[in-house]
# Entry
Amino acid sequence: MISTILGAFRIGEIRNKVLFTFGILALYRLGAYIPAPGINASAVKAIQSNFGGNGILSFLNLFSGGGLGRIAIFALGIMPYITASIILQLLQVVVPSLEKLSKEGEVGQARITQYTRYLTVGLAFAQSIGYVFLFRSFETQVNVSVINNFNLAKVFLIVVSLTAGTVLLMWMGELITQRGIGNGISLLIFASIVARIPHGLQSWWNNPDQVFRVIMPFIALGVVAAIVFVQEGQRRIPIQYAKRVIGRRMTQGSQTYLPLRVNMAGVIPVIFAASLMAIPPTIGSLLGHNRTNNFATDVQNFFSPQGWHYVLGESLLIIVFTYFYTAVTFNPVDQAENLRKYGGFIPGVRPGRPTAEFLDRILARLTFPGALFLAAIAALPTVLINQTSANFFFGGTSILIVIGVALDTMKQLEAQLMMRNYEGFLK
# Structure
């Protein structure tokens, strides 16, 4: 990996792309420290303890790189865009017009991207309103005014600022994808999580549980190794292409393979399950603030991220969404039709419907262990907290995203180097 990074800086074009990517990420981190207009910065420090004690807010604050805890202009992070993308992908299955657009090539994808942007703005605007009233509810705990001169104009200014911050991040992510290295949106989330590593190391080192301090590095190494092993694991289905006559030429038959990944859904099911599980305690925290023995408080306590109800519910949702998202991204019927159209077949399997059934059966067997793995990684931090009473700073979702984005970015960097350093047969 180190040799790949050093080799990238020897080529001017790749070096410029890498530096451009680092520059955009640096601007993103700068914006996470700039408070939104109308926010009392001194009062923000007094309410930051609420973000550490509330598991949901701590989770959301992690994905904003600490911007939510500071109520910065990038407080929402890029999560509204991620949510909008997931919603549009799911709607392509049930809405025929969107499914038709997805099959129209670049023109259709451009239209879907435009719809995703519009939905991102709407989600960011709605989340901004919710956060404004959530921040104001913390004022009674610290006896400090977080928003000075609270009125409709001030609320509108803060909501517009937070929404504009999300739109700016969406544009910055697309710039990285076009002119930099790697997927821009993924790298923004990667930078948010990596920026919190010093806080995680400090929390681990200051932990009073000596046993946890000793075994934590070994647990982290084991989790990283397991994630890399599963993320790179795949089942290779052999594909045979028959001889074909194209014009006056006859093409030779060839052999290749169709790679089916064990974790084809990636980290999307974990993010989507965590988002759904965050809704009940967030609403309960907002409605049941400073109240006792009411329904909202009971809901908040029942869905507490440190409780077994939360772990069980999130694990079931992860398994369901893993199967669902895999079915959305990989259609065995379309894959079998494409193989038949181009003269390809799986040895021992007849083309057409038998091929689709074969691929569907293999995919179902691969998805089950992948779904269990995602559920186990997501539940691991909660289990450790309950067993050791220690503060496990990073969740399984964070580790999955960091490793997945790092692997994908390194693969793209290696591909760029290979294209420019290929020497051929004659030197």
In short: The mean pLDDT is 78. The two ends are 26 Å apart (CA to CA).
